[in-house]
Every structure is written in C-alpha cells, then in structure tokens.
Amino acid sequence: MMVARMGRVERRRAMEQYLQGLLLDGERKSVEPMAGRLVDKPHEREAMRQRLQQCVAVAAWSDAEMRRRLAQLLSLVAGARARRRAVHLLAYNLLSVYRLSGK
User: Fold this and answer.
1) Residue 83 predicted with pLDDT over 60
2) b/e per residue, 46-75, with b = 16+ CB within 10 A?
3) Which Pfam families is this protein grouped with (predicted)?
4) From the CB of residue 21, how many other CB atoms can be counted at a distance below 10 Å?
5) Are 17 and 38 within 8 A, CB to CB?
6) 58 SS3 class
7) Which of 14, 19, 33, 86 could form an S-S bond across to 55 if both were Cys, CB 3.0 to 4.6 Å?
8) What residues contact residue 66 under an 8 Å CB cut-off, 6+ apart?
9) How confident is the model at residue 98 (pLDDT cuts 50, 70, 90)?
C-alpha cells in the first residue's frame, strides 16, 4: 500500500525494504546498519546497502505522497482497532444483559 504504483518494481521493492529497515530494532537507522539487519548472509549486505542507498539518494519519491499514504494506512489501522473495540464492547454489554436477565 505504501509504495504501490510508485515507479518500477525494483524501486518499489527497495522502498519496502527501506521502510522495513526503519521499523526494525536497531539504534542506527542509516543505510549500512539497516542493510545488515535486512539480510542474513554477510555477502548480501553490500548489494542491500547499494539498493537502499539508491532508493534514498536517487529515487524521486514524493514526500507529500508518502505522508499521505502513511496517514491513510494509519487511518485504516485506527479504524480497524476502533471497530474491534466497538464489537468487543457490544459483546460485553450483550453478555451482561444476558446474565442480568437470568438466562
């Protein structure tokens, strides 16, 4: 959702990996440490570092578009949580009424 229709497949994949790297544990969020956390094999780190570096430095991502997409994603997540809470609250209230009625 965050990177859909934002350039070629390779660029979208690199952006997804960059976003994943930002969300992973780790104190340093620069390209090199993130590359190390994104791949298991040491010999793959340099290729990952280059992909992430190109994604950040060269690709023409629209900051405004990324913020809009993030806001949309957060809105969907918040809406889903609110709906779940409403369902749980309704179920709790129905169960309470059922218990009070002695059934």
Assistant:
1) yes
2) eebbebbbebeeeeeeeeeeeeebeeeeee
3) DDE_5
4) 21
5) yes
6) coil
7) 14
8) 2
9) low
